[in-house]
């Protein structure tokens, strides 16, 4: 048991030596019965942007294409429909 504790403490010390201290975003939610602290890694924003950016960009591009197609279809239907209404 003691040997396991020593290995754990040594691993913690190694982690502190190799990791540069980073400022984290900390939010505390506090109520009468519950206190929750949420700490976000500063690299989280970069990771989210890297992983979520391409799918969101693809969805925006697809949505724009669909809307453009609908607008063009509605415009051509309106011009064809308008010509029929004015004809005797």
- In total, the number of strands is 2
The proportion of strand residues reads 5-15%
SSE succession: HEEH
State the secondary-structure class. Answer: alpha+beta
Largest sheet: 2 strands, antiparallel
In DSSP terms (H or I, runs of 4 or more residues), the helix count works out at 2
Instruction: Identify the overall geometry.
Output: elongated
Structure characterization notes:
The chain has 88 residues and is an alpha+beta fold. Helix content is 68%, strand content 14%. The chain has helices at 2-18, 44-86; strands spanning 25-30, 35-40. Strands 1-2 form a two-stranded antiparallel sheet. It is elongated, with a radius of gyration of 29 Å. The termini are far apart. The model has no long low-confidence stretch (mean pLDDT 77).
